[in-house]
Design goal:
Blueprint: E1 3-5, E2 17-24, H1 28-38, E3 43-50, E4 66-72, H2 80-83, E5 86-94, H3 105-111, E6 116-123, E7 133-140, H4 147-171, H5 175-185, H6 198-205, E8 206-207, H7 213-223, E9 231-234, E10 237-240, H8 245-248
Parallel strand pairs: 2-3, 2-4, 4-5, 8-9
Antiparallel strand pairs: 1-3, 5-6, 6-7, 9-10
Helix pairs in contact: 3-7
Length: 250
Amino acid sequence: MSLIENKKKEHTTSNKIKILLFIRDNCNFSADIYKKLNDNISIEVTCVKSKMRGETIPNKIQSWNGDYIFCFRSLFILPVSLIRRAKIAAINFHPGPPEYPGSGCINFALYDQVDSYGVTAHLMNEKVDNGEILEVRRFKIKKDDSLLSLLKRTHNKLGTMCLDLINKLINNGNGKSLIAEMVKDFSVEAWNGKARKMRDLEDLQTLDINIKKSELDRIIRATYIDEFPPRIELYGYNFYLNLGKQNKDR
């Protein structure tokens, strides 16, 4: 069930910037972003937390009206009808560069053995990870990066980008003008292909019984975490990989 928080501050709301914030429940980065926005007396923030995929956006949120919608690690896919309720902009913070739209972005980057990764802020439209790009921040992938280490660094970079961009917009007298400038500045960036879905990641994690060790090592590095390990399907049974501490620490 989705959680909604809307803390009212003790002075007039007529001239406040109204923000609808979608974040992830049980996420320290999400909690920090919400706290910093909620502590700002010039902002009226409504916060919706998601716990799992497939949740329904609460009905009371569908009638929200305000200035900005921000999505940070949220599992909701927002309908166009809600996106259009943001007078200035609806912005998503994607935990990957434009080369990797959709789900499993970190996983496929590790699988492809690329040298760099990144995070992207973009306007939202009717498609997932498709809107105009506002900013991209890139960083190196280390040779010894695991999925968990890259996830942690990515979420840290994404959280910093989120707060930086929100602060810019709040402190700027003309948010629409600033957004137009950012779109122009990052016009060289473009989404690469169709956004992947969770099914694509599940397919990557489903191992062939005759897999070569080199391919297995790539998939383990790209997809292994304790909660969602790679698996083999055999005679109607699923066998899940379980790495011991010694192997995980190599």
